[in-house]
Amino acid sequence: MTTQELSDAHLLAAVRGGDITAYGALYTRHAGAARRLAYTLVHCPADADDLVAETFAKVLAVLRAGRGPHVAFRAYLHTTLRHVRYDRVRRDRRIEFTDDMSRYEQVLSRYEQVVPFHDTTIARLERLHAARAFAKLPERWRTVLWHTAIEGEPHAQVAPLLGLTPGGVAALAFRARERLRQIYEREAAGAG
To answer: Which Gene3D superfamilies does the annotation name (predicted)?
Structure first.
């Protein structure tokens, strides 16, 4: 028998046994009814789709844990969908939108006094990536970046060293910085 020919009870037992394709058959069989119910509970189609997706995910987790229905899957699904909707409404009621921040000024002032955390490990790793990226640049680009970005020398002062005009130094420095950024991103992503 194919999964479409099996009863809900057989499919539920298969899901509990670890067969996800059986849950796919249950989804195909009952998703339309769940969407219709969701559309009656919310006004936005996107919210309805989110509600259906969250409901099916919750029911799957319950079934994998060995709980949930053995028969009457649709009734259980609809009940779960309504509960998910009610939970969202309760959660949304607790959210307060206001322009008046005076009630929160004391809390905010405590956070303003917090010193930002500086992670030395991350800083060391970023320096390592930067050094590796810099070492991969051609010598001429390393030179222009060293003199303009690190030493802060003006383009006119670096031009004779590289045999370029000040505008040529600016263009070379721009290309070198862009290439350094690309290599750094690759290094940081682990593809270096």
So the answer is: 1.10.1740.10, Winged helix-like DNA-binding domain superfamily/Winged helix DNA-binding domain (1.10.10.10)
CB 159 within 8 A of CB 169: yes
Which residue, 61, 98, 107, is CA-closest to 80? 61
Extended beta strands in 84-129, E state:
none
Give, in order, the Cα–Cα distances in Å from 178 to each of 137, 166, 187: 11, 18, 14
pLDDT band at 5 (very low <50, low <70, confident <90, very high): confident
- Residue 192: the pLDDT is 46
CB 58 within 8 A of CB 76: no
How is residue 128 written in tokens?
Answer: 């390592």
Burial letters 137-152, b for 16+ CB under 10 A, else e: beeebbbbbebbeeee
| CA dist., res. 59 & res. 23, Å (int) | 10
User: Could you tell me which of 89, 81, 84, 87 has the C-alpha nearest to residue 37?
Assistant: 81
**Nearest-10 crossing angle of helices 120-135, 166-189:** 130
Sequence-separated (6 or more) residues with CB below 8 Å from residue 134: 142, 145, 180
How far is residue 100's CA from residue 108's CA, in Å, rounded to a whole number? 13
Question: Residue 60 contacts by C-beta under 8 Å, 6 or more apart in sequence?
Answer: 15, 23
Residues 41-57, mean pLDDT to the nearest whole number: 93
| Residue ranges of domains in the chain, CATH in brackets | 8-93 (1.10.1740.10), 120-189 (1.10.10.10)
Q: What is the pLDDT of residue 110?
A: 62
